[in-house]
Amino acid sequence: MLAVVVGSALLILWIIASIRRNNKCGLKDIPNAHFSVPYSRLWLLSIRWRKLENRSRIHLHRRLGPVVRIGPRDVSVNCIDDGIRTIYSSKFDKDASFYHALFDQTGFMVTMIGNDEHRRRRRMLAHPYSNSYILNSQTLDSILSRVSRRLREGMAGWASTGTSVDVYQQAKCCMLDVASGYLFGSENATDTLQDPGFENDLTTLTKTTTKYLHLRTSLIWPMTYFSSLIGGNVLPDPVARGRWEAWLTRVITDSYRRHPTKPPSTASLFDHFYDSFKAADPDMPLNDMASFIAVECDDHLSASHIGLGILLSYTMYELSRDPDWQRALRKELLTLAKPSDKSLAHRLADLPVLDAVVTETMRTRAPCPGPFPRVVPDSGCRLVGKFDVPGGTVVSSSAWALHFNPVPFPSPEEWRPGRWLEVDGNTLAEMRKWIWTFGSGARACIGTHFSMRVMKELLVTIYTDYETFLDEGFTGNVEQEDTFSSSPLAGCVKLKFRRLT
Ligand code: HEM
């Protein structure tokens, strides 16, 4: 009886304190996502736990406007000016508790919290990912032509036998083979299109990690500790993990051995990274440097493998559902047969249908929907010209909520590449501002130009000579999982191929 009285008294005290705290808090004028959010994070953590966070944000912003309170000190933002332009500037640090829960290892660029450390690392890595470098890289030319050749061999077989192909897996293989070749040189590239065993290892490792992402990012200490015991941080499949680490060690050692004699025309990213680290700190012990480079490369490989695998396979899926757009794309690709002084990489910029198809898939199937939380600096900030948000508030945005906003994108759920071709220049520029697949600001993705070139060249390889269509026998759920990295729920996307020439 005494326990009940004490418990009730404590509860009443907690409610009074929460109400008083909320009345004093600078967030009280912002619309609430749920009646409980001024007092507790439970609602936010429960939608994250149940894998509903990004889809919920789409509907919340449609109902409540561009700024919505989702926790006692958490705000969701869904507009460009006075919104993501402000909160994704270099003044706002990443939210350490979220990003450190997200990854098994830290110390690489995505997980860096403070902006000074991040700026130094980004300067070391960014050059070979710049647009001009990507367009003119002979290393990337040669690895892309090798992967395209392998892909053509595969398609010839699938088309002649009428095989139902898991294009998600094939897309992941393409991306792993391209990224490993760009990072470590053709001599160290994987060849998973030919021998997919190694890709399976990586998919197994990624699946185990992403399976617990929603738990790790929704539980708060000390529960994160218990979640690690039930699987959050347990090393997945030690055999696959061992093979992956052994491969990474071998290619880094080999790249280091070849580095002194490599001509610039065949330089890999490893060569650039090594020179940058050496220039920044000539006395850095070799082992430290090797492990810094290894964790960065590990991250770039997995972003390419999963992120681009998702994007390429969904582009193929959407084209298979819409034969008219597939025909329009092919008509455009056949113009590439005309002689030109420009390389294929440079000619990609002259293909508006290809660009519209890719951009529309980036909009409707963003592989990393969010939420990318940032912490408001002590000076506070003002959002949409009317909400003064105090320092320490966690602000975040979701790519899906921005992309499914019906104002810039009428009928947002429809995959309609034509929306990018039918509008005037000003409207187009406005629509482009809302595309947030690769984030924005100081911490935007460094892989954007690499991703665009690789995606588009592989689509040229596929749709110049082949048609893809739905496999009627495939009934898997192709919707995306609502988590930080959003693969198809079925784990696969099956299509068939037909040769056209
Ligand atoms: C479709 C594929 C990809 C998507 C959707 C994607 C998306 C993103 C997003 C949204 C961010 C911002 C994250 C944040 O604010 O916390 C980011 C950052 C980053 N991405 Fe990507 N990415 C993709 C491919 C790649 C590739 C291929 C690479 C490798 C080269 C890469 C390397 C990075 C790095 C290093 C960062 C951190 C940048 C920084 O902190 O300055 N990404 N990516």
Automatic annotation (TrEMBL):
Binding-site residues, heme: C445
Cofactor(s) this protein cannot do without: heme
Keywords, comma-separated and alphabetical: Heme, Iron, Metal-binding, Monooxygenase, Oxidoreductase
Keyword Oxidoreductase applies: yes
Claim: Heme is one of the keywords in the record: yes
Transmembrane segments: none
PROSITE patterns xref list: CYTOCHROME_P450
A Pfam family assignment: p450
GO molecular function: heme binding; iron ion binding; monooxygenase activity; oxidoreductase activity, acting on paired donors, with incorporation or reduction of molecular oxygen
Family the entry assigns: Belongs to the cytochrome P450 family.
Protein name per the record: Putative benzoate 4-monooxygenase cytochrome P450
Record organism: Clathrospora elynae
